[in-house]
Amino acid sequence: SQQGEEDPQALSIQEGENATMNCSYKTSINNLQWYRQNSGRGLVHLILIRSNEREKHSGRLRVTLDTSKKSSSLLITASRAADTASYFCATAATGANSKLTFGKGITLSVRP
Amino acid sequence: DAGITQSPRHKVTETGTPVTLRCHQTENHRYMYWYRQDPGHGLRLIHYSYGVKDTDKGEVSDGYSVSRSKTEDFLLTLESATSSQTSVYFCAISETSGGSYEQYFGPGTRLTVT
Question: For A26-67, what is each residue's pLDDT tens digit?
Fold first, then answer.
């Protein structure tokens, strides 16, 4: 079963706007990761946030983690048409060692 | 991109035939993974390897087997392909425990079982 559930399933915004995507999960985690997938390609790692961290930045990306609510959000600021892709959250459950569990993904469309 | 290749990239096969997909890495990473991606299901782990000849099952391992005789190669075999195994298959690698470090993905193999 999926550990991470992203919300919304699809998001369409205008270039220059911010995009916010959410992920909820069910069990205790070691860390949470976000990945991007362009159409027809493999996934690309964006950012990892550990369970003892609350916020992390990477360029135009900002990720927050609330372990009490078992949720995370990914914010992409000043979006570009090139940000059009599917975005997945993946969780590493505590004690799961080397496995990640992926959500079903969010489809982001950025209109020029 | 990380040095990960998958072969073949596309394959059409008939129900009941055996199929082997290959993942090759040049990064000398310890961990390797096979996922399948289907609409409405996201990515699901089939099998993974934590070293040469060390493998374990994932969430959807039924009907699949794997082998890893060298660090750089991880093979996924469908012993007798079924239509339900039509999917896009991704290989991934990780430097150390995949739960602590990011995974790097190959370009995928699109398999169609008719």
Answer: 989 989 999 999 999 999 999 999 999 999 999 999 999 999
Give me the DSSP letters along B93-105: EESS-TTTS--EE
Task: Write the pLDDT tens digit of every residue in B20-36.
Answer: 999 999 999 999 999 99
The alpha-carbon gap from A15 to the nearest alpha carbon of chain B, in Å, equals 26
Of B40, B103, B106, which has the smallest distance from its Cβ to A100's Cβ?
B103
C-alpha B95: how far from chain center: 17
Amino acid in position A29:
I
What one-character-per-residue DSSP string does B45-62 give? Answer: EEEEEEETTEEEE-TT-T
Give the whole-angstrom CA distance, residue A93 versus residue A88. Answer: 16
